[in-house]
Hints:
single chain, alpha/beta, Rossmann fold, seven-stranded parallel beta sheet
Amino acid sequence: MGKLEGKVAVITGGTSGMALATAKLFVEEGAYVFITGRRQEVLDEAVKAIGRNVTGVRADSANLADLDRLYEKVKSVKGHNDIVFASAGGGEVDKPIGLISEKLVDDTLNLNVRGTLFTVQKALPLMREGGSIILNASNAHLKGYAGASVYAAAKAAVRSFARSWTNDLKDRKIRVNSISPGAIGDTAAFAQISQELTDFFVSLVPLGRFGLSKEIAAAVLYLASDDSRFTTAIDLVVDGGMSQV
């Protein structure tokens, strides 16, 4: 029996990278997954890649009407959910303070903070007691990386959500944790960077390499499953030691 046998999971931004790898692993472990993406053709490709026990819903996590449609679909197909991986997010990390625009601030906070908040809030009416919520933060909030201040601040908020919501939801025995990936080489953010920049990032990682999406997926599986049944409010950093030394 898989670690998520019979569970229903919602994964936002599940069409590529870490979230897609997580969706595939969840299905392998017995879950039924709902994934979201903003582009229908990419969403269709992801559903095909997962292959079974999956429904794709076109949605922008920063759009509340889209989130309503997502959970209406979950309710009509499965009636409940057990796991939420609020993975959708992103932002620019090459903008020092003198180049930060109002639009950059609004876009980054809208997707990472507002989107994460309402992804979770709107899931709650369907969540069963004992469920698990995993929030996608970043190791950027742990260090003072030049040019990444807005993105790092947004991810610090996400990490803070895990602490506060743990207390909000403790009576329902719903666990809330965040995960903070580092440099993941097979994601869009890192796949096309120069060799010079690749060498620089790798030099910051004690393990001497980029991480892989499947390694993040394994960590998310731990937080979603009963293996972590006594774990809540933590930030699980998966970055090869990059932010710790």
